[in-house]
Specification:
four-stranded antiparallel beta sheet, alpha+beta, three-stranded mixed beta sheet, about 375 residues
């Protein structure tokens, strides 16, 4: 995308798309239990599948800061819309971009940029989530092929996937024994289970993935080399963590807007509730929290092109932003009172949805652990 002016115009288009098409369809998506094809088609037409993919592979070639600013915009709508393309633009495409062979990049990235290939990031297992280095799914060499067996859990977009980025054990224990495989949907031996019901994010299809003697050629081994699985996964995860932090900001901005509107309109004791000081205190806290998280996320995004990545600060941003949006959501419900507790109210839905952000792409406790370890490792000797 050429120039700042072009990007600003595109950002304005995405803001209008969010306001005029995504937000009005939130309840419809929740009722259907998935994002319908007419809206997926519009997301494709808006080129949201392409934002993180370089121009040489058919993408928009946007910087991480530009991606984050777009995320602030489209996540003012339900985060379910973002979920439909998030596994493609972050977890899967970035792992392919940095670790795959050129042939694998040419096969998947242009199709991802066009929204023709939805990726499903398949790392978490029933017994291994944060402890990914000890995952149990196996990939056993058999001539020129690999045979994969195992079960993956909580896999977003599994039901819609055109390819699964599967982490499986090819070697001994620990991270060095894990490899990544790009497995096309429809390959015999891989199947997605029925989408599970969730507390929030209703309309985002999450399910288990079963690998039962799933045979793939050695061409499916990402990078053509064993042992790259967790490195590739972490590349995608750190990109996704930055986007999740940005999503928390977008959701918080929506919540602030809903709370301010209600505080202006709702009258008690002869005046708008926004004129009561204790309501004003909650509104002020919401704005300050949102602003602090936005500044953190933008700082991380501006430094994202650096190598090595600012891992500890990305963890800080994800940790702070995900905890922040839960505080903001709770205050929004409090300001709306009984209305905020009604299931059909947007604030109630956002309250349910935002709780997930403290869990996925690394729980708050995992972020704390990684931040503290970096502090201890980087501290100068006394």
């Amino acid at each position: 995308m050429g120039g700042d002016r072009d990007f600003e115009a595109y950002l304005a288009e995405v803001e209008a798309f969010t306001r005029e098409e995504l937000i009005p369809n939130e309840e419809r998506v929740e009722e259907l239990g998935h994002v319908p094809e007419d809206l997926v088609r519009r997301i494709r037409e808006m080129r949201l599948f392409a934002i993180s993919i370089p121009e040489e592979y058919g993408g928009l070639g946007l910087s991480q800061e530009q991606q984050v600013r777009l995320t602030f915009a489209f996540t003012r709508a339900s985060a379910v819309f973002r979920a439909r393309f998030s596994t493609t633009i972050g977890l899967c495409s970035q792992a392919i971009l940095d670790f795959a062979t050129e042939a694998q990049k040419r096969k998947y990235l242009p199709a991802m940029a066009e929204g023709r290939c939805t990726g499903a990031f398949s790392l978490t297992e029933p017994d291994y989530g944060s402890d990914a280095a000890n995952l149990a799914t196996t990939a056993v060499r058999d001539g020129a092929d690999y045979v994969l067996n195992g079960t993956k859990r909580y896999i977003t977009n599994a039901a819609d996937a055109d390819m699964f980025l599967v982490m499986a054990r090819t070697g001994g224990p620990g991270a060095g024994g894990v490899s990544a495989f790009a497995v096309d949907a429809g390959t015999p031996g891989i199947r997605a289970g029925k989408p599970v019901a969730m507390m929030g994010h209703r309309g985002s299809r999450v399910s288990e993935v079963y690998l039962e003697d799933c045979r793939v050629s050695e061409d499916a081994l990402v990078g053509g080399q064993e042992g790259l699985g967790l490195k590739a996964a972490l590349r995608g995860i750190n990109h996704a963590r930055t986007h999740v932090a940005a999503t928390c900001v977008g959701q918080a901005k929506r919540l602030v807007g809903e709370a301010v509107r209600y505080a202006r309109e709702r009258r008690q004791f002869g005046k708008a509730i926004g004129e009561h000081q204790l309501v004003q205190a909650m509104l002020a806290d919401m704005r300050a929290d949102t602003y602090a998280a936005e500044a953190m996320v933008l700082d991380c995004a501006r430094r994202f092109e650096q190598r090595p990545l600012p891992f500890a600060d990305i963890a800080c941003a994800k940790y702070f932003a995900s905890e922040m949006v839960s505080r903001v959501a709770d205050k929004a419900v409090q300001i709306l009172g009984g209305q905020g507790y009604m299931a059909d109210n947007a604030v109630a839905r956002l309250y349910r949805d935002t709780r997930l952000f403290r869990i996925f792409e690394g729980t708050s406790q995992i972020q704390q652990q990684q931040i503290a370890r970096a502090m201890l490792r980087e501290a100068p000797e006394a």
